[in-house]
Amino acid sequence: MTTTENAKAEAVAKAAGVKTYEFTTTSAAETIAAGHKIAALLTPPKFLILRGDLGAGKTTLVKGIAEALNAADPDEVTSPTFTLIHEYEGEYKGAHGGGKTPVDLYHLDLYRIEGERQLDTLGLDDLATPDSIVLVEWGEKFPSVIRRSDGEIVMSSTGGDARKIVLTLK
C-alpha cells in the first residue's frame, strides 16, 4: 500500500470505531510483557482471533495475557494444539476502577479442526459469555469464527526472536 492508501485505510478504520495497537518484541520475555499490555486493553466479553504462522509466538503471548489476568503462571500455559481448549480463571480490573472482577480466559487452537460441523462440537457459544476472553488460534479458517470475532491479534516474525504484534479491536 502507498502512504495515501494507508492513510485512507486508517481513516476508514477510525470511522468504523476500529482501534489498532502495535507492539514489537525481541525476546520471549518481551512477548510475555506485550501480553500484559494487551490484557490491560481487553475487557470482557472479548472473542479474538489469534493469527500467526506456526512458531510465531502465539502461546507465548497468551502466557503474558494469562499472567496479567492472574489466571496462570507463564509456565502453566501451553499450546492447546491437541486438547483444543485450555481454560484459565482469573480477574481483571473493573470498568470503574473498583475491585477485581472474575474473568474466564479461553485459549483455543483450531488447527486440527476440519470443518464447521466439527467446530460446532466445541461449544463456542458456551465459551463466549459476558465474563470471558476467548483467544482462538487458526480461527481465520472458519467464516463463523470471523463473523463472531471482536477483532484479532496478528503475530509475525521479523527475524530471530523478534516479533511484530498487532491488536485490532472492532
String of helices and strands: HEHEHEEHHEHEE
Mean pLDDT: 89
Through-space gap between termini: 22 Å
Give the strand line-up of the largest sheet: 1-7-6-2-5-4-3
- What fraction of the residues are assigned to beta strands by DSSP? 25-35%
In oligomeric terms, what are we looking at?
single chain
Compute the number of helices.
6
Look at the structure and give the CATH class. Answer: Alpha Beta
Superfamily (CATH H level) name: P-loop containing nucleotide triphosphate hydrolases
* CATH-defined topology: Rossmann fold
**Class from secondary-structure proportions:** alpha/beta
The Rg value, from CA coordinates, equals: 16 Å
Q: Fraction of residues in helices?
A: 25-40%
What is the number of strand segments?
7
CATH architecture: 3-Layer(aba) Sandwich
Silhouette: globular
Total domain units: 1
Residue windows where pLDDT falls under 50 for at least 5 positions: none
Largest sheet: 7 strands, mixed
Summed up:
By secondary structure, this protein is of the alpha/beta class. Helices cover 31% and strands 32% of the residues.
